[in-house]
Predict the structure.
Amino acid sequence: MSRVVSLLLGAALLCGHGAFCRRVVSGQKVCFADFKHPCYKMAYFHELSSRVSFQEARLACESEGGVLLSLENEAEQKLIESMLQNLTKPGTGISDGDFWIGLWRNGEGQTSGACPDLYQWSDGSSSQYRNWYTDEPSCGSEKCVVMYHQPTANPGLGGPYLYQWNDDRCNMKHNYICKYEPEINPTAPVEKTYFTNQPGDTHENVVVTEAGLIPNLIYVVIPTIPLLLLILVAFGTCCFQMLHKSKGRTKTSPHQSTLWISKSTRKESGMEV
């Protein structure tokens, strides 16, 4: 119960009535100064080509010491919803784009009624909390789960496509959410502590730790490597051809005659009359 209260307090802390509303920024790790509940990171990519598959998202989180998001209860779901609302509020330029969470199924195309029971958390969590959209999961070849985030889409049978879950093919490209253990002693050089000491605000602090910039850049740089190699090879070939031509070319001095004159005198034979 205390954990649920703590998470609800965190949701109110992000942007509650009369509370200090701190912007959640993509690629930053968001922690809470009570050091009791986890830290999170929202990885949102404007460019569709920069979004990642389920496995890539999972590896990106693990490379920073975290895991792909698992959700323990409705309170934690509401906390994540608050963070996403804060991340995508008007004026940020962030719009549609679902987020991978750590729920997946290791089955081969089950379509029976038992399929929903086959989903498990990639971090080993035993949580049975689920927040499926209407008629989901559809199973079949869709084995990995996203949290809907399509604010501009027309509502479906289950309402807006916001924050409820949908199973998707694991190779599809989406944003993702990482989850980390509480930061007991955040590293001083990379942290920014924001105090919620505005008038009338009695909540605790929020610690936003800047993290994840380099791993995010990796997904931008890696796709350009083949193009860079192609440019390098073309440049090297061009230089080689120019060097080869310059060696094969001979130059003649304008002051140098091309005629050969013999130094020996030639005797003229006399003519008899």
Remarks:
- The first strand starts at residue 28 and ends at 32.
